[in-house]
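[agent] plan:
  1. take the single chain provided in the ticket
  2. run structure prediction with default settings
  3. attach structure tokens to the ticket
  4. add a short note for the reviewer (M.T.)
[agent] executing step 1
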Amino acid sequence: MSVTPLAPPVRSLPAPGAVLELLKPITWFPPVWAFMCGVVSSGAAFSDNWSRIALGLILAGPMVCGMSQAANDWCDRHVDAINEPHRPIPSGRIPGRWGLWIALIWTVGSLALGWALGPWAFGATVVAVAAAWAYSAEPIRLKKNGWWSALVCGLSYETLPWITGAAVMLAAAPDPRIILIAALYGLGAHGIMTLNDFKSIEGDRHFGLGSLPAKLGVERAVRIAVVAMFTPQVVVIGLLLAWGKPWQAVFVALMLAGQAAMLPRLLADPKGRAVWFAGFGVLLYVLGMLASACALHLIVPGASA
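[agent] step 2 finished; step 3 output follows
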């Protein structure tokens, strides 16, 4: 006599650990690092601002970035069913509309924490939340266009938290030089975001999403990504030299040289090596960010001056 195996029960609540997976802690690093670069570049003293720094790091990473990941996964659940069916929503570990509720709860929580940190942080949070939903959700869904989506992601992951970190420390608008360097690294992240899109080419094409690898092809997209990533770093080196910080300029140049040394392997197999380059190349990229922030700390008259 054969026994028919019982079907697994249908979940009504998210599985343990699935919510954390939905918020993708690994993605929190770029905005958290950028926020700390803003803190360093402000020139302000750390000693009287530890609580604000800690809350700012939570805002940049677990809250705003986590919210953007939840919103993106909810809006991309049909695409992920093809590209990455093991993710929490398409796999059913976050059932029903729980993905949407989590994204909305994190949106409200982010705005509340931004409000608690003052007007500059709140304004930045409003911009970040709006950008996250505009990136993923209809009818805007900026990710339909790879040019705009990579730009918005780069500015949101690097430029906005950098400026926010400086503004939180100073309780005022940051020095224009801070804004300029933060903007350059955000523009460079356009290339990083394009490389990240290489892993989802098939699903993007199936659903008509215009990521650059899906729209332009692998060869053209990888070259655009490299130019977008490298050019702002060259400009940063020039600015640091012009501002009398040669040692920091040399360090950024060495980080750029390290990225350049990895290019032959990337260009030989763009699709296979894009994630590899985005991992190791980004490490060198963000070390250059920190060196630039340290240079700004010495240049810009902060609150501790």
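[agent] step 4 note for reviewer: The first helix runs from residue 18 to 23.
[agent] ticket updated
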